[in-house]
Structure formats: structure tokens, C-alpha cells
Design a protein that fits this description.
heterodimer, A: alpha+beta, 30 strands, elongated, B: alpha+beta, 5-stranded mixed sheet, 28% helix, rod-shaped
Amino acid sequence: MKKLVWSAIAAAGFLLLLPAQDIREKIERQGQHIPQIALPDLKGSGEAQALMNTFNQTLMADITGSGVVKVVPKTTYPLLVPQQPSDFTQPPPPQPDNPRNRRQQAIPPPTSGGGRWLSDWGGPPVNANYLASGYTAPQNGVLVLYGWLYDLSRPNASEAQVIGKRYLGSVDEAGARKVAHEFAADIVATFGGQSLFGTHIYFVSDRTGHKEIWAMDPDGQNQRQITHYNSLSIEPAASPDGSKLTFTSYYKGTPGIVVLSTDPVRDLRFYNQSASVNSSPSFTPDGKQIIYSSSAPGSKCCRIFLANLDGTGFHAISALTTIETEPKVNPKTGTEVVFTSGRSGPQQVYKMNIDGGDLERLSDGTGEAGNASWHPDGQIIAFAWTRGFAEAAWNIFVMPVASKKPQQLTHGEGKNEQPTWAPDGVHLAFSSTRNGRRYQIYSMLADGTQVKQLTTQGNNDRPFWGK
Amino acid sequence: MLDKRKLTVLWIALAVTMFAAGCKKKAPPPPPPPPPAPVETRPAPPVAARPAPVIAQFTAEPTSIQRGQSSTLRWEVTGDITSVSIDQTIGTVQNVGSRRVFPSESTTYTLTATGPGGSITASAVVAVSSPPAPPPPMTPTGTLPLERRIESDLQDVYFDYDKSDIGGAARDTLTRDAAALKAIMTDFPGASIVVEGHCDERGSAEYNLGLGDRRASAAKDFLVQLGIPENRLKTISYGKERPQCSESTESCWQRNRRAHFSPGQ
């Protein structure tokens, strides 16, 4: 069974490190080795019980969404769920066949522990490799979760514990979610996955009557407004460590770049060149520079600039001949930039070195392409493309930069644009009109499955998934 | 008047007297002839003096017309007339009459009546004024707020898909806009005008921010070439953020691919 764990971890590592293979292949390959986990609903004592619906839903969503384990359907589960290691019992040892006792053997030995044996979960019909279980209870005004992960290949409960931990939260829905997220993060990490807990999706919402920058949790919870300019604020991007946020805003008249610290929210005063457009900012992977698009020195947009965090030391890395925007630096190497350019006609996705050399077009020149986003491994991009369709029939594609072979993830369910990779490299967020004329933000796995709607109120688009 | 015969007799008499007085030592002068008997000339019977013509009336009615209208001259001349004429190419007329005239500008008509007793003139004046010049088109005066003035006088300029070139129709619109802009800038000496660039919904949002900028810039450059002062025009791109309409139809898309004018700060 240890072999299984190691091959699972290797497969997960495979997923993260594999070059020049398409993302769908990666996930399919991993699916053949993927560990099975039993995830029964947990219970809470006293006040905690009222919160367990939320808790269990959050835990289930995080584990199923992780892409590194597969959850066995609950219909196969035994009736009794052990809530702590001491709830487990051992099956009785097999009796030797003694003819002298045959007449006294009226009761056959039990074949199942009803849930109290490890083999109830590891054997048929459940056939799981792992069991996650525990319980919650309020204690001194704090919600406490006791969570365990058991390796069902082990002979007894004490040897089977992979995780045995206490998690603390407030005695309310938010606290229940928190402890569920943390437990799930530990489970997912065991299998080499990366939890999305603690990451944020920044986005643009007009629900207040003006486009402002908002943030939310990866599951759409905790949507909160960050800017209050009552103007037009768009195009957010977070620094790699999550400490800063940059975006474009019209609050001073023409589009200009703003850099804020996220906690506390404070304007860090980015110097904007005197130009009709300064826009489309993002951070370099070392978090020390901003790359952006500007019509400087005049009023005919735009080319790519690099500058310090405060906007000083700006220098152009492309020539001012056409519209060039959406520059994003390779998060792994810091030396390449993908961007959108109109230099060959309709907008296409290009790549160049951060010094402006080695220019290469990545999209094939048909239709219109844009919105490129780097995978954390620095080898794959996601982007939006009309791929020979009518203009504006956008869909999300992923493409390894080396092979330039695109794979289509959405298929005309409304317009699907602006993909952004999650830090786990397995999820994407994007904007879509699949549920109406307005854009909403969705998440999905990198193979296009498990599409989840995250926003509902107003028009919400341009997500950026960061820390 | 003395007639000639009388005068001759007087002169002869005078001459003789002077002769006689001058001759002293001669034979006793003959007794002076008896002084000539004063010639009693009967004055010539006066020629019967025939009266000159009398212009009883010479009028123009009305005395004041607009160009293209007519006036009527009326006259009446009495007395011993041999001819009556009116100038200004009218020529000889009867003693009494009337004539319609269509002078194109203010004209003085002179009537001349001639007879054995003499001639006489009179004049009548017809004043001609031009019809009132048509008023200039009724445009809002400088008292309209700048925003309303821009709305009514400056037309939007339209572009092709993914393009920021100023095409034929756009050139015409901008030329008309330039004329209106000059008037607006005169009436509002401190104001600047903003040229906004917009796009239809189809391209991606960030790319469209750039395309809108190029459209605003192209429209501004064209206006500057036509003489609009550059420092009075500002540009701003709204990409596809501020559409005029939201249907996914070619007609709505065209309406959104525009440069639009608004008041500056």
C-alpha cells in the first residue's frame, strides 16, 4: 500500500512538472493512479451540529475539487462512522476448526464490523484506500474539529493514522468553513496536491453601479469590495506573495495604474507616465517590478513597459507600432512575456523575452486571440480565442508554449474569456455569459470539467487568481 | 421798348445838333430847324404772351418699394404743351397718364413738359429697398450650456471593425464638426473638448481600450489638421466599457465603433 501512496505522489508531481505534454493527458494519466478516499459526513456535538451541513459541504467540495484524490460515493458506506481512533475495533481472530466444539458453534462469526473495522472501509463494497473522519465540538466558545486521515492498508487504527489534528474556528458558519478548508488542505497536501485555501480570486464587479475591484474565496464565498472609487476600475492582478494588488482605474480622469497593499489597503502611489492610456498592469515573479501597457509618450496606444513598483525607472520593451497589451511574465523563469498584439492584424497572442527579443506568435493567426495566463509551471498558457468562429465567439483554450498545440476547454456555452490559473495549477477561473447576457465568474478543472458558478450579482468578470 | 425807327431818328437829330453847334463863323447860321417833332411811335402792340405748361401732378405711388415690386407714376400737365416726356427711358408721353415702373434701385423720374411758353420739369422719386436678407440659421446662442451645445452641434464619427482609420464618411463628418467646433470654441473660450474613443463588444476588453484610444487620437489629429487648436482637444478611450446600445447586431456594433465628443473639465 505504501507503493500506492508513493505512486500517487509521483503522479501528482508528474502533473506539476511534466513538460511538453498537454494538460488533458496529464490528468487522464493521473486518473489511473488516483487514490480513493472515503469521506463520510461528520457530526458535531451540541451547538456544533447546526454547522455541520456547511462543514461537510465545504470539506467535500475542497476534496473533490482538488483533482488529487477521488471520493468514493457515500451510498457504499457502512452505517457506523468511527469518530475517533478508539471507535475502531478489530475483527475477531478466525477460530480453528475444532470438531470437539462443533456442536457449540451455533453463531457464525461476524463478516463485517458495521463500520468499526478498517476493512469495512478498505474492502468491498467501499474499496477505499483512505478514510477521513472526525467530529466537531464547541469548547470554551471555540469550534474545535478533530480530524483524522486513515491509511486503510494498515492493520490497525493506531498504525493507520496519517493525519490526526485539531483545528480551531469560530462557532459559526465562517468558522465551520475555515476548519473544513484547513482539514481539506492537509488531506490534499498528503497526496501532493496544493490547497486553494488561503488563495483569493480578484475580479471586477459593477453591482454597486460602478466597476470596482472585488475579492472572494475560491469557492465564491466572502465576496468583498476592495476599491470605492465610484469610477471605472478594472484589470486586477495580485503580486505573487499576495501582499499587493495592481489594476487600472479612471478615477483620475484617464486610465491610469494603481498599486495598493492588500492588508491594510493602502495606495502605494504608482507613478504614471503622461499618456492617454496606462493600463493592463501585472507583477514580475520576484514581485519587484510592474509590467504594463502604455501609449506613452503620447496618445496612440500602446506598447509594453517595465517599471519599478513605484513606477519609476520605466523603459519600453516593445516598439510603438500597434496595440500591445495584457503583458504577463512567466512565473517560473521571470524571463519571458506573453502578451496580446495587433501587429499582424486582428489581435493574437505573442511571446517574447523580457528584453524584447525572440518574438514569436503563439496563436495561429486565425480569428482573434488574447487574455493569455501562465500556468504556475511556466510551460503552458490558457487563453481566449475565437478560433475561426464569428467574432466574439470566445472560448478558453490551453496550450503548451513549446508545442503550440491548443486544446479547447469550453465549447460555445455563451462567451468564455479571461482565464486565470489558480496557484495549484489544476484549477482555472474565467468569465462567461453562459447563464445570461451578463458575465459571471466560474471555476473549473484544467480539463474543462467541474464548472462551478462563483458569482451571481451584477456583472462580474476579469478574474485574477492569486494568493 | 423803343423800336428801331424811333432810335434812328433820334440819332440823326443828335448828330445834326452837334454839327450845328460846332460851326460858328460861317454864314449866319440858318435858323435852327424846328426841333424834330417828337416821333410819336405807337408802342408795338404786345405779342399775346402764351402761358408755359403747368405740371398739375407728377407722383409716384408708392414712393417706397422692395426690389422686384412696382410703383405707378401719374402725371397731369396742363397748358400750351408741345411735348411731355419722362426720363429713365420712358420717353414721350401724353399730357395725362400713368405708367408702372419696376426700378431695381432707387430712381428719380423727371418729367419735362415743353410748350411755346417755355418748359417745365418735375420729379418723383421711387425708393427701392432690398428684401430683408434671410436670417442666419437658428442655432443655439452661446448662452446654451456647453454640454447641450456639443450634443446638438457635434456628430459622432464611425469606424470599421478593428480599425481606427478615418474613412470617407468620417472625413465629411469631421469636417462639419470642425466648423461647429470653431464656433463652440469661440463662444466658450476657456473650455476644452474631449474626443472619446469607443469600440463594439466583440474584441477583448483590454485590447479594445487600446483601439478606442487610437480612434480618439485619429479623430483629434484630423481636427487639428483642419485648424482646431490642439491644446483645446483632449482624448480618452473607454474601450467597450460605455456602449451606446447592447444588441448583438451589426447595426448596434457600428453605432458603438465611434468617436464621440463631450465637454472637458
